[in-house]
Amino acid sequence: MADLKIQGLAKSYKDVRVLESIDLDIASGEFFTLLGPSGCGKTTLLRTIAGFQHQDKGEIIVKGERIDNKPAHKRDIGMVFQDYAIFPHLTVAENVAFGLKARSLPKSEIEARVAESLKMVRLDGYQNRLPAEMSGGQQQRVGLARAMAIRPTLLLMDEPLSNLDAKLRIELREDIRDIQRRLGITTIYVTHDQEEALAVSDRICVMNKGNVEQIGTPFEIYRKPLRRFAAAFVGTMNFLPAQLDGGRLVVGGQSIPFPGSEGAVEVAIRPENVVLAGAGGEGDAILLKGEVRKVTFLGREAHYTLKTDVGEIVAQVADPEHDFIVMEGRQVEIRLPLNKIALFRPNGDVVKAGPAR
Amino acid sequence: MTRRIRFDLWTFVLIGAWAVLLILLVWPLSSILRASLLDNDTGAVSLIHYIEIFTTKVYQRAIGNTFIAGFGGMTGALILGVTLAFVTTRFHIYGRALIQTLAVIALVAPPFIGAYAWIVLFGASGVVRKGLASIGVSIPPLYGVAGVILVFSFKFFPHVFLITSGALGAINRSVEEAAESLGVSPMKRLFTVTLPLILPAIAASALLTFVLSIADFGTPRIIGRDFNVLATEAFNLFGGEVGGNPGMASALSIVLIILSMIIVFGQRWVLRKNVYYSNLMKKPERKHASGLKAVGLHALAYTIVLIGALPAIIVVMFSFRRTSGPVFQPGLSLQSYEKVIATVSAPIWNTLIFSSVAVVAIVISGTLIGYLISRRPNIATGALDALLMVPYIVPGIVMGIAFITRFNDPPIALTGTGLIIILAIYVRRLPYSARSVAAALKQVGPSLEDAAVSLGYSPGKAFMKVTVPLIVPGIMAGALMSFVTAMNELSSSLVLYVGSTITMPVRIYLSVMDGEYGTASALSTILLSMTAIAVYAAFHLSGRKESALL
Known about the structure:
The complex is a heterodimer of chains A (357) and B (550). Chain A is an alpha+beta fold and 357 residues long. Chain A contains 8 helices and 21 strands. Chain A has 2 domains: 4-230, P-loop containing nucleotide triphosphate hydrolases (Rossmann fold); 237-347, CATH 2.40.50.140. In chain A, the strands form 4 sheets. A 6-stranded mixed sheet of chain A has the order 6-7-8-3-9-10, with helices on both faces. Chain A has a 6-stranded antiparallel sheet with strand order 13-12-11-14-20-21. A 5-stranded antiparallel sheet of chain A has the order 15-19-16-17-18, with no helix packed on it. Chain B has helices at residues 9-36, 48-55, 57-90, 96-108, 111-122, 127-134, 145-169, 173-181, 186-197, 199-215, 218-223, 230-239, 246-270, 291-319, 335-343, 346-375, 379-387, 390-393, 396-406, 418-442, 447-454, 459-487, 491-496, 504-514, 517-542; strands at residues 321-324, 327-332. In chain B, helix 14 (291-319) packs across helix 25 and helix 20 crosses helix 22. At the A-B interface, strand 6, helix 2 and helix 4 of A face helix 21 and helix 22 of B. Chain A: Belongs to the ABC transporter superfamily.
C-alpha cells in the first residue's frame, strides 16, 4: 500500500511546456485516472512517474520517500503499456516471470507467483503459449499479470485498452477494476476515453495543455464540472451564449432572474437534462423555441438536434416512442431547468456549478 | 534544474564510435584530399591535378567511362532485377527456391570471378566463341565496354532482385485492386501504381548498384582492356609501374567519391517525399499463368538467374580440368588443387583469419552503433549516421591508398601487417552491420525495453535480455553480408597486401593476370565454397531465407 504525492512537477521539450507545475495527492489504494485529449501531458506525467522521462522541476514522493532521483528499474513500479509490450520471444509464463527473475526469487516462489498472476487474469493454462498465438486482449492480460506479479508499490497503465475492440475493452476494464479493488494497489490510469474513465476510476484528473483542469470523483466530474474544458470533454454538453445583466440571465430573447454576477457567460446543459415541451416540468427554467433538425435513434434513447435562435441544442429522449421518429421538421418547445444548468465565464471558470442533487 | 548529464553505456559507445570513425575513416581520407591538393614536385598547394584531370584526354575518358559503367551496370541490373522480382512475386513459378539460390550464388561469387569466367567463355580464345567459330558463327571477343556492362548487370542484379522482391511483397493488394476497379489496365497499373509504390526500393537498389559499379576495380581491369575507369586509373597511378603519381591518384579518387556523393544526394532527392505508410491488410497473391505465358515467364526467370550464376558454375567446372600453363587441356584432373595446396595455402588462412576477426569486431560495434542511431536520435548520432554513408561510397582502392598513406609511419605504423587489412575491411563493412541492426530495431517497439526496465532490469540488462534476442536476425544478416564481402574483398587488400598477408581474392586476381587460369579456378572454387558454407550456416542459424542478405 502506498500513497503518491506529486509537487510542482514541470517539464518542457525545448520551448514547449508539456507539464506546468502539477500537484497531485493520490491516496493509498486509489484508482486514479488521468483523462485528457492527446498531447495534454498525461502520458508524459505517467512516464515521468515511471522514471522513463525526467522532470525539470518538482518532486515525486511515494510513501513519504522521494523517488524521482532513482532510476526507473529501481522504482518498483509496475507498468502496463498501450501496445502491450509483451516480449514476443518469450512464452506467457516466461513473460510473467521476467520481473521476478530480476528480483532473484527462488524458483518455487516464481512458479507460484506466475500461476497466481495468470489465474488472476483468467489465463490459467496458457503458460507455454507464445504471444504471437494470442489475441490482443489476451496479450494485454499477460501484460497485466506481468506487471502485477512483481507486487509493485504502484501500478501505472498507459491507455491499456485503446488497441482493443469495443466489447473486449469493456470486459477487460471490468477485470482491471476488480483486480485493482481486490489487491488494493494504488493505480494511475491514463486514457483519453471519458466513458472508460467514468467507469473505472475512484477519482479522475482532467488534464489539458499540461495543466490540471479538475480533480474529482466521476460523479463530480460529470455532474459538477468546474472548468468549461472538463464540461466539454467529459460526456456531451450543450453550450449557449448568454449574458448576466442587472440580476437577470439573458438567453436569446428570454430572461430569468439570476442575482449575483455580471457579464458574458455560457450556459451549459447536458442533453439528458433538456426537456422537450409536453413533458411538463416545474421550477425556474429557460424556455426556448426550436425546430427539430435531425433525430438520431440509438435504441434505448434518441438524440434530437434542435435549431434555436441562440444556437444548436442536442436533447436526449429516453425510451423514445414510435411517433418521435417522425418529428423531423416540427417546431417544439424546449425547457432548460435552471437547477440543471451550469454557467461558465469566457475564460473557462465556473460561475454556477451544475446540480448538486 | 535537477537535470543531470547522464553518463551511461551509450555515452561511451557514442564517444567510442566517433573515435573509431575519426581515426579509421576521416583521418586516412583526409590524406587523400591533402595529397590531391599538393603539387608533386614543389609541394605547394595547387589545383594542378584537378586541372589536369579536366584537360587531359585520358582522364576525361576515364570520367566518361566511369559514368557509362555506372549507369550501364545500374540500368542492366535494374532491368534484370525488377523483372525477376515482378515475375517471381506476382506469378506462380516452379522452383522458386532454386531461383533464389541461383541468385544468391551470383551475389556471393567474387566480382572478378564473373569477369574471368566470361573471358573463359567469350574471350579471345573463349570456349563458346571457339565452339561457335567451328560451326561458322563468328562473334567478337567480349572485351571493352559491352563486356563490363554485361558483367555488372548479371553480377549486381541479385541486389535489386532481393530488395524489390521484399517491397513488391509488401504492397497492399487492395491498392492494386482499387486501381483495377477504377478501370486501369494491368499494364498501366504496373507503371502508375505498382512501380511508384516500390520506388523507394528501386531507388535504393539503383544507388547500390551504381556505387558498386563505379567502385569495381577487378572487372574493368580484367575485361575492360582499353576501357579505363577512374578506379583503374587511380590504381595504375598509385601502383607505380611507371613511377607513380600519388597526387594525381588522389585527385582521381576524390573525383570518384564526389561522383558517388552526387548519386547519393540524387537518390535522396528522388525519395524526398516518397514515404508511404501502409497498414498491410492483404498480401499480393501469385497468379497461375497458363499456356505460352507460363512457359515464357519460366524461361525468362530461369534465363536471368542461370546466366547470373554461370560464372560461378564455369569456374567450378574449370577448376577440375587439366591445364598446361595457361591453356586448358582435355580431361579432368585435380592438378590445379594440388598446386594450390602445395604452393599457395597461406592465402586461404589469411582470408579466413582476417575476415573472421573483422566480422567479430563489426558485429559488436555495428550492433551498438545501430542501436545508438535508431534509439538515441540527436545531433551527434545523426552525424554519425551520415558519416557511416561514407564507407559505402568510397571505393576500396581509395580506402587502401588512404590507409597506406596514413598508417605508414608512427604513431600508427601498420603497413605490411595483417591488421591494416583487417581494419580496412572493418571500416568498409561496418555500415552493413550498423544499418542492418538499425533496420531490425524499427520492428521492435521501444516499449518492450521500457517494460523490462519497469520490471526491474537496468537499461543495459534490458537491452541484452530483450532487444538483442529480438534483433538477432538483423545482426545475423549484417554479419553475413559483412563476412561474405570481407572474404571477397579485393580492391583495398590489393593495395595493402605484402607477400605474407596475401588473401585469396588478391591471389586469384594475380593468377588471372598471370594467365594461370587453372590455379585461379581452383582458388575461386575454394573461396566460393567457403562463402557458400558461411551463407548456409547463417541461414541455418538464423532460420531465415535469402532475405538475410539484404
